[in-house]
Each structure stands twice: as C-alpha cells, then as structure tokens.
Amino acid sequence: MATTSIQNLNKPKDAFEQLEDEEGTRQGFCHIRIQQRTGRKTITTVQGVAPEYDLKKIVRYLKKTWFVPDEYFQAVEPAHRLAFGYGALTWEWRQGIRSYVYPLFIALYYGVLRLTALDSRAAVVHGPKLLQA
C-alpha cells in the first residue's frame, strides 16, 4: 500500500484532468486559474467554458494589466518640447530617428493654447488625449 502511494507521487497532477465524470459526460465546471509570477506578471488560464460564451471577452475581462502606451512618450513629450521649450525626449528623438510629423499636430494645439493663454494643466494634459482618441 505504501508503494502505490509513493508511485502516485511521481505522477504529475493535472488540475484540469477531471473534466468528465465516470459516464463520460462533461461536468459543468469552468476552471479559472490566475498564477502570480515574478513581480507584476501573472498567467491566467481559463478552461471548460461552454462554446456559446466568448472566451476572448472572458479572458480580456480577467486580465489585469497596466501600461503607459509608447505613444505618450513618442508624441506628447516631443510636442510639449516644441511648443513650450522644455520636456523629456527619449533616445529616438535625440538621435534623430523619429519623425516630427505626428507630434507637430499636438505641438500646434499646444501653441494655440500658449498664444491664447489657455494653457492650463488640464488643457495640456487632457487635450492630446482627446486629439488622439
């Protein structure tokens, strides 16, 4: 008896293995596993969802991510520097790799704000978000 339990320890356990009962009919369970990895990284596994549900929408809802899009630093910061004379630039701008065509539109918006003295913090921060929406 002790030998069988030791042999069972060598077999890896699959948490999603028991999706059918003894008669072979599928159980009505949906398994959602969210594993914390290093730092902020997680792995979300969803299995057993009925075909009439949209799996992509379920995973999108369960996925918890936060990011700052690259467009913020690649458009708003250079535009702010063009209009107001100060601001952070990433290496692509310092090396002359990126084009100023797109940030010029936001810089024009900033220029109008500056000339009309409407360059409040809210207008500077939220205006480009509305322009890029």
Automatic annotation (TrEMBL):
Stored PROSITE patterns: SUI1 (PS50296)
Main location: endoplasmic reticulum
Coiled coil (residue ranges): none
Enzyme class (EC, first level): transferase
Record's keyword terms, sorted: Endoplasmic reticulum, Glycosyltransferase, Membrane, Transferase, Transmembrane, Transmembrane helix
Gene Ontology terms describing biological process: GPI anchor biosynthetic process
Superkingdom, taxonomy of origin: Eukaryota
Pfam (any one): Glyco_transf_22
MF terms in GO: alpha-1,2-mannosyltransferase activity; translation initiation factor activity
Gene3D superfamilies, per the entry: SUI1-like domain
EC number annotated for this UniProt entry: 2.4.1.-
Residues annotated as transmembrane: none
Domain SUI1: 30-64
Protein location: Endoplasmic reticulum membrane
Membrane topology designation: Multi-pass membrane protein
PANTHER family reported for this sequence: GLYCOSYLTRANSFERASE, GPI MANNOSYLTRANSFERASE 3
Family the UniProt entry places it in: Belongs to the glycosyltransferase 22 family.
Protein's UniProt name: Mannosyltransferase
Natural source organism: Plectus sambesii
